[in-house]
Amino acid sequence: MPTAALRVELGWRSAPGVPDADASALLLAAGKVRSDTDFVFYNQPAHPSGAVRHEGKRTAGAGVTDILSVDLARVEGTIERIVLAASADGGTFGQVPGLYIEVTDTVTGRTVARFDSPGATVETAFVLGEFYRRQGAWKFRAVGQGYSSGLEGLATDFGITVDEPQHAAPRTAAIPLTAPPPPVTAPVTPPPPVTAPPPPPATLPPAPLAPPTAPPPPTPQPVRLSKVTLTKAAPSVSLAKQGGTSGAMRVNLNWQMRKQLSGWSRWGGGQGDVDLDLCALYELADGRKGVVQALGNAFGSLNRPPYIHLDGDDRTGATASGENLTINLDHTRDFRRILVFVTIYEGASSFADLHATVTLQPQHGAPIDFSLDECTVPSTVCALALLTNTGGDLLVQREARYLVPQRGVSPQRTIDRAYDWGMNWTPGRK
């Protein structure tokens, strides 16, 4: 490897009936993980060392990619190999055309290595390649080892403890076929005679206290592999039922950056990078309302109202991580509703041909993701997801709703009217 900062791309061609695929990485010492934290995938998107991150999916036409970022300079000395794997979700790799893995230099964008997977049949997981240490340097090796037991089989093979929900056996009750026999009455025994209590024993000095013992170390929690994909047929899910009741939840928007788009920019004219802004309207339980967005530097706050924070402003779509909102689920009771939406700030006149995916990643619980439908209207604002507090639980509703602002009406005011938020708006700038 000529450089330490690398981008690992798992790619394939999508079509109706083609299963989804997910990239993952396992950091190994002596052939096994040291703990479950050495497994980086959609439910554990970052290694504690910062050496490996799962960045998420992107779609461009029929091509789909799932991205891992790797910084070999931050890999701990005990790690000897980083296994790069793929798992199929909803089918086998025999149904996934054009599967490949490609390693590029993050800085220059130059391709360092590529492996096109040979024809697969019944495999549901693959080790496609690995980074390994050799004489003080990092090298890449293509592998192509398949598993028919899916991500769970691959993970457990390298020492991961997997926790998947088990179906409880049906409970049955015994029904008597005949009437029960009458109860047996025991003979009454007279009470013993009352006697005077014995004299108290002599007072003895207290026994020395045993030294306190250290509490046992906490039992590591097994890894959960389940995830949720929202569709038109199944558009909503309860966060509580998925285990997402506390901690931070990251909302990620990722889109395909397109250079020199045809057409004119909605706000500035011309052509260039597409700048999308991830935003959130919020209404708190005490009636306060507001917006979190880059426009006007309204980035919010995680530990005080509104308990929502915009991590930054990706002005070009060039970063692998896209744009991210973080929601503090420890304050679920303080939320009434949250509407996550996206606007085009500049670089395009509509969402047509902009392929975007949305992922909600709770700190605890399964990730929730969905793709935006193809836009067929001149829309510059899209409602992504509506989170509503229902009895202390946040219900996530997939919206994927493209709106067309009227002439002279801002995207923010347009989405406010569509969802009856009732706020006053004034022009702002970045």
TrEMBL record:
Position of the signal peptide: none
Domain annotation TerD: ranges: 5-158
Pfam families reported in the protein's UniProt record: TerD (PF02342)
Listed Pro residues bias regions: 178-221
Region (Disordered): 174-224
Annotated family: Belongs to the CAPAB/TerDEXZ family.
Protein name: TerD domain-containing protein
